[in-house]
Each structure stands twice: as structure tokens, then as C-alpha cells.
Amino acid sequence: MLPLSQQISSFFIFLSIILCLPYCFPARKVRDPEGKVKNIEIDSANLQRHSFSRLTHAGQGSRISGMSELKRYFHRFGYLPPQSGSNFTDEFDAELESAVATYQMRLGLQITRQLDPDTVLSLMSPRCGMKDKFPSSVHKKLFHVTRHYTFFQGMPRWERPQPVRLTYGFSPYHVIDKLSLDDVRAAFDRAFERWAQVIPVEFEESLDYETADVRIAFYLGDHGDGEPFDGVLGILGHSFSPEDGRLHLDGAEMWAVDFGTEPAPKAVDLESVATHEIGHILGLGHSSVKEAVMYPVLKPRTTKHDLALDDVEGVQTLYGSNPNYKLNSLSRQSETASNTAVSQWAMVPTELSVTISALVFALLGSSW
């Protein structure tokens, strides 16, 4: 019989391997719009992002292989300007330290200016594809003492007579076969209704996708809008500022509407992501409040449906309040609900989970 400490250690290593299995496979099968099955490769940047665990505890002056990929990640999401020829180095320089501190501030993390375990776990988590940082004209709003919501540059909104009426439609071609259309429609219906409850905006489904104000589609990889998807548990979705109306989700994800019937550890809640992306459609940027729907990161098997006060105040700044909305009907801190078997990483101490990730990566090599 092994000592208890060794049994616990063995259990965590086994658990980490199980949780990492989604990353151990280089491709998954999906159907294209013509119904043909094809393999979708996971983008190399996504694979690199899941190896950030090797950078844990790095600080200014460190030089570690893979640091250049972290810089590319920060560049993509607005924390680093492009360098000459985009030749990012593996050195943890002063510019990267500033980017790390800004990221920690924007994501509501402790500002250590180093790649501490909490920051690394956040960097490795699935997230929205929209940038977190905006031009200086709006930048003052990012770090308001009590308000953490943000907007797109110029604070665009849908300009319609009050009450605003918007239609939304689903692409008949860019779909997924994991969920039925009825399940997808129901999830989006609930998500739209949640926003409509707090602002004077009405949403109605249209059967004409091409003429709808909001156009919803599932895409794979590079789909022509300059924001390519990167495979399982990478970029979950993105949408564009008013009045563009495009709302895109990564068709490679394991989308789910009920974790009770979907046991996959890599499952992502469709309604949570839909609610978040609709916030962008309405004109909101990302929030630094972890409980907010507009927080950019969402872990697998986690649901976040209810609007937080920060979400409500932000969207009401753009559109005003629904006359039927009452502030006391909203909790001041929206609770992030999780399935009882979900968010398994929360069961493991943060530093230990990152250490285990590094161990698994070393054992599995580039296949992770």
C-alpha cells in the first residue's frame, strides 16, 4: 500500500492527464456545409497556448523557450504593439512585464507583474476572440474605480427609434450537427431575452438570415473575417460592434446546452457564450469583473447566464433602462453556476495544477 501522499499525487497526475486529453488529439471530425466529414486541425497557436505552463513564475529578465508565443498572444488581444516584422523574442523584457500587469488588471487578477499560477491558468483558458484593450479615447473607462465595463471605440450602438427592434437569424449553411437547430435556437432565445429584460430593445428571430440585423453562424478555422478560429478550447467565438451584426462561433467546439446529458469534460455551454457575444453585438467590450457575463474567459463545463450589475450598467449606458426593469431584481454579484462535476481544475490547488500541466506536457511532448 502506497503512503497517502503518494496516492494523492498519483491521483492528481491521473486527473490532469484525463483533463488534458482534449489537447492530446491533433484533430477532430466535423461536417462541412455540404455534409462531408473532414478533419479539422487544431491551430498551432492554440497548442502553443496550452504549453504556457512552462512559463509559470517567469518574470522580467527571464529567457524561456515559448515566451515569443506569449507575446503573440498578448499582441492579438491588444496588450502589445506589433514589432518590426513581428519578430518576438523569448526574453521577458520590460514591455512584456507591462503587458502582463495590464492583463492582470483587466482580468481582475492580482497584479504581480509576473507569470504567477493564476495568470498562467487564465492565459490557458478558453476565451472570446475580441480584444480586451481599446484605444485611448475609451481607455479611461477601463479602470474606473467602480465600473469595469468597456465599449468599442466611439461607443457605437444600434440607432433605431425607441424601442429598438432587432432581428436575428441563423445561417442555413454554417451549422453544427452536435446540437439540433431547436436547441441552438432555444439557447439564443434565452440569451437575447436576458438582455431585453434590462434595456428597451426587442429581439425577434427572422427566417431570412441574409437580411437579419444579427447573423449567427458556426465557422471553422479561417473563415474570411480576419479572426480565424483555432480549434477545441481555444477561441470560442467573436462578434463585431454595432451595427455590423456578425456573430460567429467556433464549429470545432463541443457545444452543449445541458451538462446533465453531456458528460464530455471539454464541453462548452452555448447559452453562456451566446449571452456574452450578444453583449458585443450591443456595443459592450470586455469587463474585468469575473462574475460578469462580459468577462472574456469561460472554462469548460461552466455556465454563466445571469447578467451581473456591471453588465447591466454598461448596456444601460448605451440604451437606457427597460421601464419594466427593477434594480432589486438583480443580485449585485451574479453567481457563476457550475455543474457539480465541472470545473475540475478548481478541485486542484492552482500552483499544483499548473505544475501538473507542465509535467504532462513534458511526458506527452508536442502532441499536447
UniProtKB/TrEMBL annotation:
<feature type="binding site" description="in inhibited form">
    <location>
        <position position="128"/>
    </location>
    <ligand>
        <name>Zn(2+) 2</name>
    </ligand>
</feature>
<dbReference type="GO" id="GO:0030574">
    <property type="term" value="P:collagen catabolic process"/>
</dbReference>
<feature type="binding site">
    <location>
        <position position="223"/>
    </location>
    <ligand>
        <name>Zn(2+) 1</name>
    </ligand>
</feature>
<keyword id="KW-0862">Zinc</keyword>
<protein>
    <submittedName>
        <fullName>Uncharacterized protein</fullName>
    </submittedName>
</protein>
<feature type="binding site">
    <location>
        <position position="230"/>
    </location>
    <ligand>
        <name>Ca(2+) 3</name>
    </ligand>
</feature>
<keyword id="KW-0378">Hydrolase</keyword>
<keyword id="KW-0106">Calcium</keyword>
<keyword id="KW-0336">GPI-anchor</keyword>
<feature type="binding site">
    <location>
        <position position="250"/>
    </location>
    <ligand>
        <name>Ca(2+) 3</name>
    </ligand>
</feature>
<feature type="binding site">
    <location>
        <position position="253"/>
    </location>
    <ligand>
        <name>Ca(2+) 3</name>
    </ligand>
</feature>
<feature type="binding site">
    <location>
        <position position="213"/>
    </location>
    <ligand>
        <name>Ca(2+) 2</name>
    </ligand>
</feature>
<feature type="binding site">
    <location>
        <position position="286"/>
    </location>
    <ligand>
        <name>Zn(2+) 2</name>
    </ligand>
</feature>
<keyword id="KW-0732">Signal</keyword>
<dbReference type="InterPro" id="IPR024079">
    <property type="entry name" value="MetalloPept_cat_dom_sf"/>
</dbReference>
<dbReference type="GO" id="GO:0006508">
    <property type="term" value="P:proteolysis"/>
</dbReference>
<feature type="active site">
    <location>
        <position position="277"/>
    </location>
</feature>
<feature type="binding site">
    <location>
        <position position="231"/>
    </location>
    <ligand>
        <name>Ca(2+) 3</name>
    </ligand>
</feature>
<dbReference type="GO" id="GO:0098552">
    <property type="term" value="C:side of membrane"/>
</dbReference>
<dbReference type="InterPro" id="IPR036365">
    <property type="entry name" value="PGBD-like_sf"/>
</dbReference>
<keyword id="KW-0472">Membrane</keyword>
<feature type="binding site">
    <location>
        <position position="248"/>
    </location>
    <ligand>
        <name>Zn(2+) 1</name>
    </ligand>
</feature>
<keyword id="KW-0865">Zymogen</keyword>
<dbReference type="GO" id="GO:0004222">
    <property type="term" value="F:metalloendopeptidase activity"/>
</dbReference>
<dbReference type="InterPro" id="IPR002477">
    <property type="entry name" value="Peptidoglycan-bd-like"/>
</dbReference>
<dbReference type="GO" id="GO:0031012">
    <property type="term" value="C:extracellular matrix"/>
</dbReference>
<dbReference type="Pfam" id="PF01471">
    <property type="entry name" value="PG_binding_1"/>
</dbReference>
<keyword id="KW-0645">Protease</keyword>
<dbReference type="InterPro" id="IPR021190">
    <property type="entry name" value="Pept_M10A"/>
</dbReference>
<dbReference type="Pfam" id="PF00413">
    <property type="entry name" value="Peptidase_M10"/>
</dbReference>
<keyword id="KW-0482">Metalloprotease</keyword>
<dbReference type="GO" id="GO:0030198">
    <property type="term" value="P:extracellular matrix organization"/>
</dbReference>
<dbReference type="GO" id="GO:0005886">
    <property type="term" value="C:plasma membrane"/>
</dbReference>
<dbReference type="InterPro" id="IPR001818">
    <property type="entry name" value="Pept_M10_metallopeptidase"/>
</dbReference>
<feature type="binding site">
    <location>
        <position position="280"/>
    </location>
    <ligand>
        <name>Zn(2+) 2</name>
    </ligand>
</feature>
<comment type="similarity">
    <text>Belongs to the peptidase M10A family. Matrix metalloproteinases (MMPs) subfamily.</text>
</comment>
<keyword id="KW-0449">Lipoprotein</keyword>
<feature type="binding site">
    <location>
        <position position="225"/>
    </location>
    <ligand>
        <name>Zn(2+) 1</name>
    </ligand>
</feature>
<keyword id="KW-0479">Metal-binding</keyword>
<dbReference type="InterPro" id="IPR006026">
    <property type="entry name" value="Peptidase_Metallo"/>
</dbReference>
<dbReference type="InterPro" id="IPR033739">
    <property type="entry name" value="M10A_MMP"/>
</dbReference>
<feature type="binding site">
    <location>
        <position position="238"/>
    </location>
    <ligand>
        <name>Zn(2+) 1</name>
    </ligand>
</feature>
